[in-house]
Amino acid sequence: MSTFYEEVAAALGVTDLHPLRDGGQKRVFVARRGTEDVVVKAVEVLPPHQALVLERAKREVTLLGKVSATAGRRIVALRSGLVTVGDPARPSAVGWLEELLDGHDLRELPVGAWTQQDARDLVVGLVQALHHLHENEVVHRDLSPGNVRRRADGTWTLLDPGLARHLTELSLTGLYQPGTPGYRSPEQVTGGNPEPYSDIYGVGILGYSVLTGQLPVDPRGNEEDYFRRLREQQPAPVKNLRPDLDDDFAGIIDRCLDRQPARRYLDAAELLEELGVGIPS
Q1: Is 112 helix (H, G, I), strand (E, B) or coil?
Q2: What is the DSSP letter of 144?
Q3: What is d(CA 115, CA 154) in angstroms, rounded to the nearest whole number?
Q4: Which residue, 45, 119, 148, 163, could crosslink 106 as a Cys pair with Cβ 3.0–4.6 Å?
């Protein structure tokens, strides 16, 4: 009997599956379609949450198709539409294809003691990618190392908008706590609505971590204590750990990490202006 991901692969017309990531209901593979290697994302649709899982998948594919068409290499590209297995109204599984990127995820790269220039390149690349989301009224909500990739040519690319939120659409709840421990913004644990400034906090976390080797708010230990620290604790200034940084760049990282959203940059466009970088075309 075929597994759900084998049925998805057959529906997508790909062969030679090799697993990349096992996320339970969501499986990720490298496969072959014609002459191109691609990434297969297959999601099992189980009761009692079929409608919610299906809607999440539809939104992820629609979003990725919309923003990757204009973002160039800054956001991973969609390679197919959504396919369903079984009854289209109540499928047993869904799936789609994305481009296979070369290079390495940030989680595969050593962090701490990055040069200021390398950290700035990361921040600029992330914010340029986020601009394409924010201008479409979308918040990524999961800027964790596994969702950020440095390609072989040095380009930084943003992946996996699976938890992204369209600001103009109703929120989907019931299955996932948005974000990754250690990489959440304070408002993500207080029940507040996501806004572009939440992604700005995520940029600050990644910049801080590659410069210092530490997370600005330690997620270890009891989850309730971590949430309390995230809500109440202002991260130490990055220059406490990296006194060699320019005041201007250190100030940008610290402002991104302000626990008060109104004191951060409003969105990617405002942060690009502060960085002295033009809006990406």
Answers
A1: coil
A2: -
A3: 15
A4: 148
